[in-house]
């Protein structure tokens, strides 16, 4: 089934099947993972046979598995994609996350289709259209405010999904072509070169330096911890964690963090309920600062802020732990209130660069009223840290003890079970049921004999039946309904329990009803606009066919399909550097002097020999990074048929 009203889903990423299993055990109601191809993450692919195993594991908890198929497709790739979708369906996958509208025109099984964040869903009209066109879940743009989400929800009954944690693309997702413009590596094809994480110098129209050698397009990481309840009230049902490249520790930690926050809300707000089964028991205290992040921001959820950028470094700097007090020939000492461990990752800032120090060994030297002095022996020679000075601040971005703890069993998830033991003329029957209404039974043929110590029978049977151990169940209630106290060997009752539990696990898998794809309305609903530019990412004839069916009259080919064209926005972003440096005309309204004379004029980003023009569209409050469409040698052949001519507008490009 699809998400029902007020059913809340925590959706976690998985680079591998093993990470996916741990995400479920740490509280995920659903997991998204890449398949063998077309998954927009080249180094996060998985074989279908492995995904099938994850599906079976997830369905034991009535959790869902989504597979990403969110690249735009060449015409030559449509047939392989169609075949792959059939294989996903046969593997039991619950839904596909899709960007390319051509998928909607393929002959595929009735698997759910979710609209990827790359579909750039920012308006009620777009959300309504996609829901009415057969999409079963919509991943909204990260840039939306809570008020805008509420407005979208008012116009659609389709479940809404929203990123609550992880790395942020500076551009509207699906609206960034800077990587392809630079070197032919398309983000929409899963091969982004992350030009947004490079250092740039920002100059104004007269060449004056506004910011020097900063990572001006690099955002802090998304963290909506404080906004979860407001997001639920606005209509978000699926809370998504970013991170299909992230390691096991990150997924365990962040999934557990949001599971605990959500459980607290669900406990207070009974109108909301969990989308999957079981009770999650976390064996550690989650801490979002302990795993990779570039700082925290809730981005635009509560309106525009001036501190959303990670301008100093795109790396994980970690937490400040102390200051350098002494330097030695092969060591340095620092004063801290934290415990250090061999293998810790430390760092400090030198000018604009993060200098990493891997602590080979550490020694606790002495404690005073300000903290403890630790001597650190780096893996590298101290000569490599000539820039390290007494008094410098030191951060830790790898807590060895923390990370080692997460390599061990750190969570468990169990489903409540009601058990009833009864007898009949053939022997014993153990009947099981759970909170999802799944029932099963197992029996053993045995000649029943009256017990000599009748008073001990009940207690002995209960003790052995309650030993659920490493199974996925915990005991809610046990009833023993026997016609009289029977002697039952311990080995027999234990075997009956094991058989019954194993059978019930399989019954839960078989009882899972895979959600059906939403039905598209007939006749087809009209797309909100009749003209599409390259920003619609139409890269094959099936996608063109989809839009024409919905009333679009003029369709431009995707950016990646062009061999050469004029200057166009290669990145469209809500992040505005004029605003970040207090040069926004809206900020300067009513201000006298130079700032009060600010106009929306071009600025320039400089990285080495490359100069990038910035233009500002103040009405929608957007920054456009300009570039030229130029020829590249594509890694795959271009579309085999010609689409409509590319259309460029002097006004704001059509979304």
From TrEMBL:
Lineage, top-rank taxon, reads Bacteria
Annotated GO biological processes are: proteolysis
Q: PROSITE patterns given for it?
A: PEPTIDASE_U32
Q: Name one GO molecular function term.
A: peptidase activity
Is Protease tagged as a keyword?
yes
Query: Which InterPro entries does the UniProt record give?
Result: Pept_U32_collagenase, Peptidase_U32, RNA/ubiquinone_mod_enzymes
Residue ranges occupied by any Peptidase U32 collagenase domain in the UniProt entry: 395-508
Alphabetical keyword list: Hydrolase, Protease
- Name this protein carries in UniProt: Protease
